[in-house]
Amino acid sequence: MLKNWLKIAFINYQKNWLSTIINILGLSVGLCVFLLIFIHWQDEKSYEQWIPNKENIYFVENGNASFGIMSSSSYPEIFVSKEKFSEIEDCLIYNNWGKQKLSVGSNSAYVSGSASVDSFFRFFPFEKVAGNFQNALSDNGKIALSDKTAKLLFGDDYLNAVGKSVKSDSNGKDYVVTAIYKLEESNTVFKPDFIYRNPYMEQSKDQWTSYSYNGFFKLKPGTDIKALENKLTKQMQEQDEISAKKWGYTIDKKNPTVVYLTSISKMKLDAKSEGVEKGDKKSIMILLSLSALILLLSGINLINLKTAQASQRAKEVGVRKVIGSTKLKLVLQFLLETFMICLVAYIVAFAMVELLLPSYNKFLGKDIKLNNASLFIYTGLLLIAFSLISGLIPALYLSNFKPINTLKGNFSRSKSGVWLRNFILTLQLVISSFFIICSLIIHTQVKYMMNKDLGFKGDQAIQINFKKGNWENNFNVNKYRRLKIELSKIPGVTDVTGSVNSLGSGTANASIVKLSTDTTKTVQTMLGGIDENFLKFYKVKFLSGRDLDWKKASDTINGAVINETLAGKLGYNPKTALDKEFFTGWDGKKKYKILGVVKDINYAGVEQSVMPIVYFNYDRNWIKNNMQNVQIKISENDINGTLERIKEFWSTKAEPGYPYDYNFVDKQFAKTFEKFQKQQTLFTTLNIVVLVIALLGLFALSSLLIEQKLKDVAIKKTLGADEKTIVWDLTKRFLLICVIAVFISIPFGYYAMNEWLKDFAYRIDMPIWPYVLSLFLLLILTFLVVSFKAYRATKINLVKYLKYE
């Protein structure tokens, strides 16, 4: 029986070779797209699965009205809570401090380091290579190294490095090596090449509202997470009240501080803030849903083509039923035929995934490999489920033919057969229209963002971040001043400036501002410590007032320029804000006077609202040592030559021994668009895939249906119908279905894009033209595909189709 079924299947595959190839190709492409996005999702979900007791470790996040939800916590919030709440078994603070240079004699390593506390290895038990994890970070003079870093510093004798000294060039201090560990090879955001004790904890012990650390709790099994969140929230709100009384400001009681606990095993995707190297779950889920639609579209193609072939199989089914075949056997036979097509498509899809994975990894900036056994189990189950779902409809449809009807004549003309094909074709075109609409709107929004006025001119300006620096003894500010003088002497350099905030990297160092005339009204603001020429350097437009004048002592001591957003938050317009005075949270009781109001500058990308900011003389207490970069404007006459001269100076005099790299400010800001440009690229690619699959299916379906009407065409030509009339008669039904499909897709497209656009502080108004263009584009494509086959049908040999009438 099985052998007979296989023979029948291959005969039908050969007879309908075009539709078979289109089915396999469509399914392969659909499966390939789905698999690529599915393995990306699985890869993101696999982070931190290696950690023992991960179900009891939670990441601490804080949310308030001023900053939204933050990934950082305060020192006392973490350590006091451990002592206060019995549910907390252990606690940890951890900060990734980026790359730093370590040296031992003539050997050095420029590697990524982290600052933590002694509980680090109790939370993350890396494999121990040498030394002892207990008390490994118990004081500020100790350091733990990864085996990779130890090899770079100590060579082949790295196993004996414990007890030896390592120097940090960032602060000039010597550290004693206490332990050597092996980095985890599984997916994790915790991959420090070295770890030392956070040296700034002592000064943070009483600062409840200084959110500076990534905090983690290890909870006792069975802890009620919601109840603990409520306790932590109540504690932070009480501390906010104490701080408000101490500093004389009011709290927004409608939006108080809230503490959230997120399981570390879900932190990568489900952190409520930006987390620790958080993945983009929303984009992944959107793409996964869209890839599932593409898979559905491939299944629709299969269903549509199988049902369209009903007329060819109707008599076969009728004969088999007459000789005693049951409905169950017929269903199983047709399911087997579908499964064989799906299996071939599945194998081809995996070959395509293997071929495309390197490029996909490069696009994502990841290193995903096809070595996860669960992936094959999941996709195998998907194959079976997909075969059943896509095969069951045509199987039941074909097996329900009544022998008395099928043996009489052509079933394909029945109303039920036509209705089913029309419904499935409409669904196919609805999906295609949805993708076209969404792709056009995404393209429009990304283009709008890239063309938006950013408030500054960063042409021919580069930024170099300091590799070597620290917060002690005014190191950073003195270094900046020296480098500014030296860089200004280089031929081709036209100007040099600096600021504590980097364009394209967002703003930092938040504080509060309150008017001297109304001490109850406070505004959260960013600190914009700048050099005297910063605003001129970037051609920032003044809406009122003037720039800071470094020759006037009053300007450098308590003068300030604010942006228009801060002026509005304080209750002023650009003109009425001039000469008003305010107190700040960073300079005690000193009054600052507003000398000018400038147009808003986007620091972190146009999808986010511009933050209020105060621009003032950078030479202020701790602010001065946040000058961690220098910004250089170069002449357009010899850009490459100037860049080479800057590189030589930097590598030999500024920071010898450190890697040299720079970013054009415009390009650095352009990186804030990368996420959305990638979304645009992926959506455009998916849109092309959808159209190709849909049009291939439409071509195969129209070919089958038009072939069934060749006798009608022959009769019409015999009666004198011209080619245009025949082509129109054969295509108009498809065009009508296309129009209906586009109108059905419009509300779905509008809802999806309106939800997507909600993420942007600056967004386009919902345009109408993508919906209209989608209609015309699909009509044109449908007409071209169907009319091509219809035109060829007008060239048939009349005798061949009329001789049996």
From TrEMBL:
GO molecular function: transmembrane transporter activity
Annotated InterPro entries: ABC3_permease_C (IPR003838), MacB_PCD (IPR025857), Macrolide_Exporter_MacB (IPR050250)
Membrane topology, from the record: Multi-pass membrane protein
Residue ranges annotated for the MacB-like periplasmic core domain, each copy included: 20-234, 426-636
Cellular localisation: Cell membrane
Domain ABC3 transporter permease C-terminal: 289-402, 687-797
Pfam families: FtsX, MacB_PCD
GO cellular component: plasma membrane
Domain of life of the native organism: Bacteria
TM segment ranges: 21-41, 284-305, 330-353, 373-398, 419-442, 682-706, 734-753, 768-791
Protein name: ABC transporter permease
